[in-house]
Amino acid sequence: MSISSVASFEFEQQKAQLFSKLGEPGSGAGRYAAAMYFYNQGRISAELLEIYRRCSKFDLEDPIKLTRHEGLEAPMEQHFENGKLDR
């Protein structure tokens, strides 16, 4: 497996976690971990990372809904194409 295919696989895994189904046990923490991954790559803002942190303890809490409530631009799955975040 090449480095680029490993990176692409990791990106897709993190993307799936970021948009995981609400209410699944551990999904809040998983979404936060994925948000940290994208933050460390400079793909999401510190404000958005904070939203995911606040929601991390609550598997039913929707970070996208909270993001919109707070007037921030929410990440959408279609923004994540071909291993990059398109804005």
How would you describe what is shown here?
- There is one protein chain.
- By secondary structure, this protein is mainly alpha-helical.
- The chain has one domain (3-78).
- It has helices at 3-18, 27-40, 46-55, 63-69; strands at 80-81, 84-85.
- A two-stranded antiparallel sheet has the order 1-2.
- Strand 1 (80-81) and strand 2 (84-85) form a beta hairpin.
- Helix 1 (3-18) crosses helix 2 (27-40).
Q: How would you summarize this macromolecular structure in one to three sentences?
A:
With 87 residues, this protein is mainly alpha-helical.
Give the arrangement of secondary structure elements.
Blueprint (H helix, E strand, L loop, with lengths): L2 H16 L8 H14 L5 H10 L7 H7 L10 E2 L2 E2 L2
Oligomer: single chain
Shape: globular
Query: Could you say which structural class the secondary elements and strand pairing correspond to?
Result: mainly alpha
- Computed over alpha carbons, the radius of gyration is 13 Å
Unreliable runs = none
The number of distinct β-strands equals 2
Number of helices: 4
Portion in beta strands = under 5%
Distance between the termini: 29 Å
In helices, the fraction of residues equals 40-55%
**Largest sheet, if any?**
2 strands, antiparallel
Mean of residue pLDDT values: 87
Give the helices and strands as they follow along the chain: HHHHEE
Strand arrangement, major sheet: 1-2
